Amino acid sequence: MKIVLVGYMGSGKSSVGKKLSKVLKLPFKDLDSEIEKIEEISISKIFSEKGEIYFRKVENRVLKKLLSESKHFILATGGGTPCYGDSMEFITAHKDVVSIYLKTSLEVLVTRLKSEKNQRPLLAHLNNEEEIEDFIRKHLFERAFYYNQANVVVENSSEDIAETVEKVILKLL
Ligand SMILES: Nc1ncnc2c1ncn2[C@@H]1O[C@H](COP(=O)(O)OP(=O)(O)OP(=O)(O)O)[C@@H](O)[C@H]1O
Ligand SMILES: O=C(O)C1=C[C@@H](O)[C@@H](O)[C@H](O)C1
Ligand SMILES: [Mg+2]
């Protein structure tokens, strides 16, 4: 089985994915880290030096390469992965892939991301909590169309990562 986690920045794909991989004893892959390995620079540098369009093309290509492998794994995607090109179609077309949308409330996303915004190039320019909230509200509204195409939706607005891992496992049974 391949499990693909989708959701907004800060929804917990990387954190939940790592824990889930330990419980299910499946290898964990993070699409952002895979891209950084292949490109040999950080995501922030890809955005600033090569631009977002370049990043989206690489992201789509690396996603397709990973999902075409016969190995089983848990993949944490980037926050924008399903929202560009044919990426979400590609994910849902694979019958050996279970896609899971980690759904997190606007309030919680703002709380989590305000201290981590500088690690995320799309948020780095925002100056205060109000701007962060306004940006995320609009962005999440646009992106929810893609996230909602996932096979399963799991709420991840609590502080407790283990609780979310349990919810995911119950949905997989
Ligand atoms: N219930 C929870 N599940 C996951 N992460 C949580 C939870 N509560 C708090 N966090 C924190 O939220 C932050 C964001 O999580 P994470 O980096 O896993 O998000 P992400 O979805 O991978 O984001 P991105 O799309 O930017 O890669 C982390 O610092 C994590 O510790
Ligand atoms: O939501 C997004 O578009 C992004 C999320 C991160 O995971 C990275 O993939 C990058 O910072 C872009
Ligand atoms: Mg991540």
Topology:
Elements: E1 2-6, H1 13-24, E2 28-30, H2 31-39, H3 43-50, H4 52-68, E3 73-76, H5 87-93, E4 97-103, H6 106-114, H7 129-147, E5 152-155, H8 161-172
Parallel strand pairs: 1-3, 1-4, 2-3, 4-5
The chain binds adenosine-5'-triphosphate, (3R,4S,5R)-3,4,5-trihydroxycyclohex-1-ENE-1-carboxylic acid and magnesium ion.
Molecular structure report:
The longest helix has 19 residues, at 129-147. The chain has one domain (2-103, 147-172): Rossmann fold (3-Layer(aba) Sandwich). Strands 2-3-1-4-5 form a 5-stranded parallel beta sheet, sandwiched between helices. Helix content is 54%, strand content 13%. The chain is of the alpha/beta class and 173 residues long. The model has no long low-confidence stretch (mean pLDDT 97). The two termini are 12 Å apart. The structure holds adenosine-5'-triphosphate, (3R,4S,5R)-3,4,5-trihydroxycyclohex-1-ENE-1-carboxylic acid and magnesium ion.
CATH topology: Rossmann fold
CATH class descriptor name: Alpha Beta
- In total, the number of strands is 5
CATH architecture descriptor = 3-Layer(aba) Sandwich
Any low-confidence stretches, pLDDT <50, length ≥5?
A: none
Q: Number of folding domains?
A: 1
Helix proportion of residues, in percent?
40-55%
The value of Rg in angstroms is 15 Å
Family: Belongs to the shikimate kinase family.
Function: Catalyzes the specific phosphorylation of the 3-hydroxyl group of shikimic acid using ATP as a cosubstrate.
Catalytic activity: shikimate + ATP = 3-phosphoshikimate + ADP + H(+)
Binding site for substrate: 32, 56, 79, 143
